[in-house]
Specification:
It comes from Geoanaerobacter pelophilus. With 283 residues, this protein is α/β, with parallel strands linked by helices. 37% of the residues lie in helices and 12% in strands. The two termini are 29 Å apart. The structure holds zinc ion.
Length: 283
């Protein structure tokens, strides 16, 4: 699909990747990652090849514990010119942490990502959208104090986020400065916002519907922000035993996910969230 004919040429969209293993699924308790097969490196290599072919730079939200276990993967991603941001250390939900524990997760992750890449992360995404103004109002001040410029953890989806939340990025005014909040793409519908920007929704809903949503957001002057996990681009990968619904959300309908991604990259312009924020701040 071509770009929207009236789209502002300066507008960009963003592809974000939550860098974690196939077994880092929220709610799947008691998983012993040490004994499970690791698929991250090969999945990341396949993804990096597709991004290189499309000349697209993406934002990778990396789990600190995974960076410690597989430092070469992080170096490879950064070496190809992509943005490295933080997904926390242990994949704990932010609303399950105390403010001190959250700060500790941020610092441990920033320290290791800084050592590996030479840059401390400027962006954060909480595991499973578990950060919000209602449940963790303190988290935004901590992010700002720790040197973050943006957060991408508030989703305008029912059940897992705020169904009345904004679909376009906004500035959160805090006592000591401002932080950009960048929500993922969703498609409004009569039953509420649909999760077309990533996860099972990106793999399930028709591509023309997803593409129309990007065009619509771009016409409002806002980016379409996509989020994927490496396991979603691994159709033959293993699955954790979970309820049918949870298994579908984590692993279902993966067969054409990579083809969908290629179509998206060919049809629209993409940049990193970090560059997008820089552009907004200098406007
Ligand atoms: Zn995650």
């Amino acid at each position: 699909m071509n770009r929207a004919p009236n789209a502002d040429e300066r507008l960009f969209n963003a592809l974000t990747i939550d860098v974690e293993e196939w077994f880092h699924v929220c709610g799947a308790a008691g998983i012993d990652g040490l004994t499970l097969e690791r698929r991250l490196r090969r999945n990341i290599e396949r993804l990096l090849a597709v991004l290189d072919a499309g000349q697209v730079k993406a934002t990778f939200f990396v789990l600190g514990s995974l960076a410690a276990a597989e430092p070469e993967v992080v170096k490879e991603i950064a070496g190809r010119g992509h943005e490295i941001a933080s997904h926390g250390y242990s994949h704990a939900l932010v609303h399950s942490l105390t403010p001190d524990a959250f700060r500790d997760e941020l610092r441990r992750t920033a320290d290791i990502l800084g050592q590996l890449t030479g840059c401390r992360p400027r962006g954060f995404r909480a595991p499973q959208w578990s950060l919000s103004r209602d449940r963790t109002p303190w988290a935004f001040d901590i992010l700002l104090a720790e040197g973050y410029h943006y957060d991408s953890s508030c989703t305008p989806l029912p059940f897992i986020g705020n169904k009345h939340g904004q679909r376009i990025p906004w500035r959160i005014e805090l006592d000591h400065g401002t932080l950009w909040e960048i929500p993922p793409l969703v498609t409004p519908s009569w039953i509420g916002n649909l999760p077309t920007g990533g996860g099972w929704g990106f793999r399930f809903f028709p591509m023309p519907m997803i593409e129309r949503t990007i065009v619509n957001l771009n016409s409002l002057g806002a980016p379409g922000v996509f989020f994927l996990h490496p396991r979603e681009l691994d159709p033959d990968g293993p699955r954790l035993k979970m309820s049918r619904f949870r298994e579908f959300v984590a692993y279902g309908s993966r067969k054409d996910a990579m083809e969908r991604l290629k179509r998206l990259l060919a049809g629209f312009r993409f940049t990193t969230l970090g560059k997008m924020v820089q552009q907004w701040e200098s406007a």
